[in-house]
Amino acid sequence: MQKSSIWKIAGLSVLLSLGAPVFTHAQIPPTDVSELAEKPVQDRSYAFGAMMAKGLQQSNLSAEEKDLDAFVKGCKAGMNCDEASLKKANEVLRTRLQSGTVTTGEAAKDVAYQLGVNALGQLAVYVDIPESDFDMDALREGFQTVSDGKTPRMTEEQLNQILQGYFTPLHARKTSKRGSR
Q1: Of residues 55, 60, 137, the one with CA closest to residue 98
Q2: What's the pLDDT tens digit per position in 29-53?
Q3: To the nearest whole number, what is the mean pLDDT of the chain?
Q4: Residue-wise over 136-149: b if at least 16 C-beta within 10 A, else e?
């Protein structure tokens, strides 16, 4: 797996609702990741926050539109959102990304909030992950570390391994659900 593929997944998670495939066999090759799926929630959350921040570095969003507090608040809300809330988040993000116009003030905080809703809401709504799968404090730490330009406490390879161990089984579960419909 290329190191950058997980980071690209992070940045593209915002675009899930726009029809972009997030997890494909080309991006996450079949490997034995069973031992990686058991990594502590804090490590997975930190890795997810770090990868989201790294993925968003390549976006045209302003720093204000990536507000840490609003993003984490949105992530928390995303863990309990329904399809209507997710649809609203996706519409806000689609409008912002397609317009290319930077927002400020409350509108910028809303973009950051909706990024969080989208990031974890996709998983909560479509894969039924439990709220206990993510620790918001650790997610915040990972996101802030990378956003601040600091070196994460894990190597890029470790972050990728943790995320691959978590997302590969989810991808299989999502594919299985889709096939049974």
Answers
A1: 60
A2: 333 444 444 568 999 999 999 999 9
A3: 80
A4: bebbbbbbbbbbee
CA distance 3 to 45: 18
**In angstroms, what CA-CA distances link 103 with 12, 15, 61, 109, 158?**
20, 18, 9, 9, 35
Angstrom distance (rounded) from CA 83 to CA 14: 15
- In sequence order, which residues have a C-beta less than 8 Å from that of residue 102 and are 6 or more positions away? 60, 61, 62, 65, 108
How many residues in total does the chain contain?
A: 181
CA angle 178, 135, 144 (to 5 degrees): 105
Q: Left, alpha or beta for 111 (phi > 0: left; psi -120 to 50: alpha)? A: alpha
Give the SS3 label for residue 134.
coil
pTM: 0.76
Whole-number Å distance between alpha carbons of 103 and 108: 5
The C-alpha R_g of the chain, in whole angstroms, comes to 15
19: left (phi over 0), alpha (psi -120 to 50) or beta: left
Residue 170's pLDDT is: 79
Alpha carbons 52 and 6: distance in angstroms, whole number: 9
Q: Alpha-carbon distance 169 to 16, whole Å?
A: 18
Cβ–Cβ under 8 Å, residues 127 and 174: yes
Token duo for residue 6: 């997980």
